[in-house]
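Changelog-linked ticket: NAI example.
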Amino acid sequence: MKSFSLGMIGFGAIGRSLVDRLNKDTDGLDLTITALVRHAPESQGLSNLTFVTDVEALLRSKPELVVECASQEALAQHGPAVLTAGVDLVAASIGALSQPGFEQRLESAARKGAARLFLPAGAVAGIDGLTAAKLAGLTQVTYVSRKPPNAWKGTHAETLCDLDSLKDETLLFEGTAREGSRLFPKNANVAATVALAGLGLDDTRIKVIADPKVDRNCHEVEAEGAFGTLALRLANFPSPDNPKTSFLTILSLERTVRNRWSRIVI
Ligand SMILES: NC(=O)C1=CN([C@@H]2O[C@H](COP(=O)(O)OP(=O)(O)OC[C@H]3O[C@@H](n4cnc5c(N)ncnc54)[C@H](O)[C@@H]3O)[C@@H](O)[C@H]2O)C=CC1
Ligand SMILES: O=C([O-])CC(=O)C(=O)O
């Protein structure tokens, strides 16, 4: 039986669900998983899952791929070490790349380790088309994030409005993808994904909205360029364990991991 060693950084809503889903069908592989967490739980009940608390221990497990699904801070803290060690990395907290110089740091770590950093679509879609369209020139890309008020709890939004008493949609932020993904690190990684695929962090305009009239995490992307036009709207179910995170994010990471061992990659 072929084996596959998967590393993870973070084991919250995305991490738990990703492991459950991969374990339901390992495509005939002997899958072992090592997850880097802040505090290892006393017991976890899965025979193929080990918790570690430092990146050196994660790397000692000889992962063939590491998935970061923790936070922008965790990607900044551990991403360069993983890549320098020659291990490919899939990052969910893509907004971290809006920190000045961090994208370059990751690139140089990846070059040093001959590894690659993968930026998955996560909660959004159309990233393949957008980044292909970029090759012939884009003139405009806009992104709107619209989530129910409870998705904005515990974020910068609470300093802007009383989320519990919102009656109408409320604009929390309008500006560049760079600023928006920094202000809302748990909610606006998609802004950075759209920007990196398309016009860049400083030329992609975004709006961030709390809307009591929706019960889904909605993402709208519009783009224009030499390819034509694109208009995309997603109304994602939130993940059962974290209202900020769309269920589609977990599926996107699952697809990225499965692509790693698939013979046909789509
Ligand atoms: N690209 C995308 O479309 C999306 C990206 N995300 C990113 O994924 C992250 C995780 O999402 P969820 O699992 O829903 O959040 P969560 O809050 O349920 O779980 C995150 C886990 O990571 C842990 N963690 C945070 N920093 C860490 C560190 N430095 N070292 C070790 N563990 C650390 C936390 O303690 C927590 O257990 C979000 O914060 C966001 O950055 C989330 C949704 C969509
Ligand atoms: O999961 C979502 O809907 C989007 C999200 O949290 C992010 O972009 O960070």
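Closing comment: Example verified and attached. Residues 123, 187-190, 217, 236, 244-246, 249 surround oxaloacetate ion (ligand 2) (CB under 6 Å). The first strand starts at residue 3 and ends at 9.
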